[in-house]
Amino acid sequence: MKLTRCDQLFLFAPLAILLGGWLVVPALLGLGATLTTYSPLTTTFKFAGWANYSAVIHDPEFGEAVRNVVLFTVIAVPLELAIGFGIAYLLRPPFRGRSWWRALMLLPWLVSPIASGVMWHFLFGSATGVIDFVFGWFGGNQAASPIGDLRLALPTLIAVEVWRVAPFVTFLLVPGLAAVPEERWEQATLAGASTFGRITRVALPAAKPLLLTVGMLLTGLSLGAFDTILILTGGGPGTATLTPALYSYERAFETNDWPIGAASAWLIAAGVIGVGAVYLRLSTRRSAS
Amino acid sequence: MSRRRDTVVRILLLSAITAAFLVPLLWTGLASLGVLPDNNSRPPSWTGPATLQHFSEIGGAEPAFWQELATSTTSALGAALITVTVSFLAAFGLARARLPGDRSLTQVFLVLASLPAMAYVLPLSDLIRRLHLLDSFATIVLAEAAVTAPLAVFVLHGAIVQLPTEWEEAAVLDGAGLLRVLARVVLPLIAPSVAATAIVVFVLDWNMLLVPLVLTSGEVKTVPVAMSDFFTFERELEWPAAAAALMVSLVPLAVLVALFHRVLERFTLQAPAGGDIG
What we know:
- Chain A has 289 residues and is mainly alpha-helical.
- Chain A has helices at residues 5-33, 51-57, 60-91, 98-105, 107-110, 113-124, 130-137, 153-178, 182-190, 195-223, 227-232, 244-254, 258-288.
- Chain A has a single domain (61-288), classed as Orthogonal Bundle (MetI-like fold), CATH 1.10.3720.10.
- With 278 residues, chain B is mostly helical.
- In chain B, 71% of the residues lie in helices and 2% in strands.
- Chain B starts with a helix and ends in a 19-residue tail after the last helix.
- The model of chain B is unreliable at 274-278 (pLDDT under 50).
């Protein structure tokens, strides 16, 4: 239908007010504030230019945080996509109870990131945990919790995140695979394609746009990794699992270094917007062709 | 026949993977019932008869827990309703207004949905504090609604764009206005997608930490905020009681997903096939 000016106002104004008032205006005010010495606790402040950003970038601790979150993202996101895709592929063809199975498989994602942190804290613990239980069967000694180990902490956090997010990826990918016409699978089978061939020649091309979209969501969320890490390690041991989001939170609320916290938070936003720009190019170019 | 063999292999693989993913939750569920591993014996064994006692211990560890559960439920419900309503209107507008560059505009909503909370909560909390709106239930509901709106716009836009426009045109010829078209034609056609979006958004709101955390000084708390307190203030927490609390906060979502498992199949980020717009 043709939309009049008035119609458009009615349709778009609520969203504009909601997003403008709660996200855009605060974010822009915050962006302005990071160019000053503004802090909620002080009454006076003056223009500071890029000083806050420069201080963040030259802080070796922030460098560590960036290194950790980049590692976290480049390992966790492909793993989540691959495992999620694999399970979605298994769940694609209709069989009895498939719909229930999909719901069951979504359970880990229903656990909040914070609850996941609480849960794994105890599962990694020696007296109550699942690891020592298994080790015990093989006659091993009690292992120290991997989240306290300098080298194991980050890989462990990645595993915990993959456990929670891969099922969500499956949930998002199944409709994409289910939308592929049945003939395409049959043609591939008749043409003698193996399972591997069906995945690379039918499933992956069909799911490509969806994988791109899901990948964008996961990348953004990984770059802001916070909740689970706050509970499990708090960024430690040392700075082994510190992320920019934790860094920003600690500066703003714990060491009362608001300008540094706010500036580093904007750097996270800038990172995601940068990835977003690449995503926009890829997604619109593909659909134009 | 090889197809039958394929299905058997598939089900076996799926069973193994599903079991692996659910073991941690099973472990937690058993702990909440007081069935705990004894890792000091060789081989390790299980202790304790099953009991529901630990569920009553939650209130001892966190006196306000049941109140917080109610806050989580009502705020997530309110936020999901607002998000879906507002996003439905905007998604219809985006699908039908033929704005210049509307394809990239919808993708911008996805990028917005990917922004992690930490990127914007600091100035939000500061502004809210200055406006003396901290610790207000409405503040938290509206903030949660705003945070999940971009994702809802993206999903609902995808659903609306796929609708043929003939029914809308017919309704307009019959003299129906915008509201009537939305309520009588569009909404019934995409009701499953709207319901699925509402459920996913409800889950996201229910599990949200940072947004409610920075908007409260402790007066209005959701369950995730209360859970984070235990660790930031390093209070003692017994595993069985914690496991019971985890189960209590997970079960409502699990029930919701189980009840609506068919509807949830309609939640998709899939861009509509073919060039039906632009």
